[in-house]
Each structure stands twice: as structure tokens, then as C-alpha cells.
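Morning. Coffee machine broken again, so started the prediction first thing and wrote up yesterday's gels while waiting. Chain of 98 residues, entered below exactly as on the submission form.
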Amino acid sequence: MEETSGFRKVSSSSFGGLALALRFPRVTLELVSKLLYLHFRDCKTKVSGDALQLMAEFLRIFVVEAAARGVSQAQAEGLGVVDVDQLEKVLPQLLLDF
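Came back before lunch.
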């Protein structure tokens, strides 16, 4: 891979390595799979293993970001505990960002 100005060119074969680098417990992948299949209109729709791993990573990042923003909101309000109220306050902007 060639590096220029802090960026590196990534070949298309590198994306397969990216998906393999994301490891999740089998239970997590089964849960994400069930959540996806609950919302498919066509029961014949299939999800590849790489897509499933990437969706699990996306959901993990979303939950971590929601928790971090909830903590920030609670601290701004002078609270020591994050409650549903703080998550409700950060949810609109979080959804817009994702």
C-alpha cells in the first residue's frame, strides 16, 4: 500500500481483511442477525458474514456514543448518574449524526 500525505491507498482486497479484523462473540452476531431479519420484508433476503460483522460494529459504536453523550449531558446537569432523561435529550442529535 502506498502512503501519501498521511493517507494510504487501500486495495479492494483489503476490505476483506477489515471485516475479518472485527471479531464479535457468536451470541452478538446471532442477535444482530435476528434484529435484521425481523425487519426484512422478503423472507428470502440473505446477509453475508461480512455485512453482519460490519452491522454489529456500527451498532456497537452507536451504543458507545449514546452512552458517552449521556454521560456528558448528566455532567452538564450536575448529576452523577445517567438516567433515561439524559439519553432522551441527546437522542435527536445522535440520530442526526448517524
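The chain has one domain: 24-97. Going to sketch it on the whiteboard this afternoon.
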